[in-house]
């Protein structure tokens, strides 16, 4: 489970940003995780308490937004969810597509008190 290492890095990044902005307390941290990324939101949630223990984020609420894994069919131009349709265009059946999103891992928002 590599999520713990990732979240520790996120915590360190948020703490650095908080120091730079003279923030003393963070209320909520919002992460965006693409459904096609290698990061599993459930494991992030499970690791979060251990990663923030003893840090300025210890009392911080974690919010996770899962971003859809969408592709653009190269044959007919339809945008579709790659997971829901098993990477096959539901309109024309083609398996040739361009990735539009879903591999992201972003710190979307740091909400200070």
Automatic annotation (TrEMBL):
Gene Ontology MF terms in the entry: nickel cation binding; zinc ion binding
GO annotation terms (biological process): protein maturation
Keyword set includes Metal-binding: yes
The keyword Metal-binding belongs to this UniProt entry's keyword annotation: yes
InterPro entries reported for this sequence: HypA/HybF
Annotated Zn(2+) binding sites: 73, 76, 89, 92
Alphabetical UniProt keywords: Metal-binding, Nickel, Zinc
Top-level taxon of the source organism: Bacteria
Residues at which Ni(2+) binds: 2
Protein family: Belongs to the HypA/HybF family.
Chain's role: Involved in the maturation of [NiFe] hydrogenases. Required for nickel insertion into the metal center of the hydrogenase.
Full protein name: Hydrogenase maturation factor HypA
Provenance organism: Lawsonibacter faecis
